[in-house]
Amino acid sequence: MTSLTKIAMTLVCCSLVTSGHAEIDLSYLSEHQQARLLGVEKTVEDIFKQLTLEEKISLVHASGKFHVNAIERLGLPELWLSDGPHGVRYQIERDSWSPAGWDDDYATYLPHLTSVAASWNIDMASLHGKVLGAEARHRGKDIILGPGVNLARLPLYGRNFEYMGEDPFLAASLVVPAVKGIQSQDVAANAKHYALNTQELNRIGVNAKPDERTLREVYLPAFEAAVKQGGIYSIMGAYNEYYGTNANQSKHLVKEILKTQWGFDGVLLTDWNVDINTYDAAMNGLDLEMGTNVGSYDDYFFAKPLLKMINDGEIPVEVLDDKVKRVLRLMLRVGLLDDKRLTGERNTKKHQLAARQIASEGVVLLKNEGSVLPLDNKKLKNVLVLGPNADKVHGLGGGSSEVKTPYEITPLQGLENALKGQANIQVMRAASSKLMPIAADYIASKHWTGTPAWTLVRYQDSAMTTTLEENWIVNGQFESKQGDVSHIKMSAQIKPMESGEHLLKANVDGSFKLLVNGDAVLAGDTSSLTQLSQGIHLKAGQTYNFDIVYSGKGQFTLGWDAPNDLFTDESVYLAAAKKADAVIYFGGLSHGDDREAIDRAHMKLPGSQDEVIAKLVEANPNTVVFLVAGSAVEMPWAEQANAIVWGWYGGMEAGNAFADMLLGKTNPSGKLPITLPKRLEDTAPIALNDYNAQESLYKEGVFIGYRWFEQQKITPEFSFGHGLSYTNFAYSDLTLKHKSVKQGQSQIASVTVTNTGKRAGAEVIQLYLHDVKSSVERPENELKGFGKVYLEPGESKSVDIIIKPRDMSFWDINTNDWLAEPGIFYVRIGASLNDIRLSQSFELN
């Protein structure tokens, strides 16, 4: 084999390397890393020539849950992978999903990628990637499974929190620095999930069927940028089907687009337990099979079955050879055989500060009437804190993105850190006027994503003999779909906190029975909503099996009055709110709602949050509603609330970052990467009846997110790109470099931004392009550029934004290529989509 030491000595200073059809800027890599890349292809050939057929087969399928086989006789070590869009996942056992029980697999818990997207800052995307890559290296990983770049088409989508918003241009712009940040640490990035994974409802079986223009303009640009501009080393295929076959083995998606048209020379690997077959996956470009639900790794589709088809002449050996060379290429690119490979670092103060900075830049100030914020900590004597997210941690929830972090600062802890000794912080959990489900604090059973949950089994018949569906539900609350008769069983393990009498209560419409450890405790058959109740003595710390059997068209809620109830009565918390100098309600979602494998059932805030928020903002105008969530929620109280903040899942330093913003230590600069609708019915998939378990037709076409709202003239609650500051910015002097441009020529827009306020702050300048006349229907506005500038009070800066020929183009189905039609284009510059400050036109000749 070629000596990597010798390769390093023959360093050629170059900043570009050709990968397929793209030139990748490698200036972000060290000289040693660039030199290593120069010798990769020769070393790949040297190793490849020595491999037996069986050894080749061993390199294209997993040999553990997150491992690929070593070839010890050639000195080729195992390839190690890890989940981790926002932190390296804790170690699991080699051959099962159980935790390995390591005591040194803690990792920095970074803000989720929605928070990165909300920063609108390529430097934050790069920083996120560098920290993630360095931590993965320190854990001995070779591939980190991230970043995620699927788009937020539907607010209900369970994995929106892992991704970068709804706009293809924004996601494409941020994925490139994220990929380079990861790969600068000698770890392969892995963009996922390619492609069209936009719902968790039947995620393995749903058939995605967009038209070609929608595919190219909306759902592929982020992946394309990762390949052509980021030089990404690996991509993960999606669970869903694409026109009747799994996306991993789609000839069009993989062989034609990814590998031929884009020139991707890295590894396409599967997600775990994907519906593929040997022949189609092999022939159409899948490279590495990572997870299949069989008893032995030898029975994987790319193991013995692939070997047999090659030996039988059904699949040419050259097909396998290409896959093997891709795997070897990835190994050598990240330095598996390089004794000077970076070693990484983990859980450092530097990484913790990075997590705090990224979280700070992602916080979005949605509303601030009467300058409620920032809070004046010199005048604060009594602060009332409420809400389900006040002291909730999120690191170990959500699914495969879970992170075992050394610590996680909650919003409450952040406030306590910031106001220590300065103000009294009173904490309450507000009770609802309605019966509330048994709180998650008491639920010992968990969904595999880590969320306390009940199992739910739906049956076809009242005798409950034929199973229709097995699922999970967050709490003891169920509602039948309108007009449908439901036959269900729900089960959970409940662990009381204190011994004594627990008054069980159930609001029931239908036939209902509750069994505790097999004994019927509560039962009734009602034709309208009726409350059943029964006392039962339970012991603290003991686990009880709760089983519910229900049939009917209605609903039920199972709650209780427990000793030393966790919740405060309405009269008490409202009285405290009226006396407080400030009220902060930390609400929103959790990973009981935002999680892999399950979509949300609706867009409303869980539990009684809407009711409590409405009463709080009425009781005290200085109430701050601070939402933590990765997907949109309805806000029926938005008009009445004076201060609304969106914080996302902010990682291990979230609480400190949130407190900094609330108290004015940092000036909010985040902007929404998603549209926040008033109602779920306003969103395209719901309005067009295109959300189901069978197929997604993408009926809205290229009109995803804000484009749909503009096309339909629907006013959202808060628009895409919206976000306020504690200072003010003025825009002036918009100039375009060219009055007209030729085909293939770029345009440059320049604008001056001035901080006219009294605080230093950052502004995101957004450029939207409008094509006045087109042969196809185009969105009213399309994001095609942005820049973030930091300004002291009174300071001005000029910002240049390049509009490339591709930005003026649409996908032409007649020529199967990008087309920029001659005509007039308007450049619209603003602080958000609904706050356009300046506009000028140019002509494309």
From TrEMBL:
Domain of life (superkingdom): Bacteria
Residue ranges of every copy of the PA14 domain listed in the record: 433-581
Keyword Transmembrane listed: no
SUPFAM superfamilies, sorted: (Trans)glycosidases (SSF51445), Beta-D-glucan exohydrolase, C-terminal domain (SSF52279)
Any Pfam family matching the protein: Fn3-like
Keywords assigned by UniProt, alphabetized: Hydrolase
UniProt xrefs under Gene3D superfamilies: 2.60.120.380, Glycoside hydrolase family 3 C-terminal domain, Glycoside hydrolase, family 3, N-terminal domain, Immunoglobulins
Family: Belongs to the glycosyl hydrolase 3 family.
Protein name: Beta-glucosidase
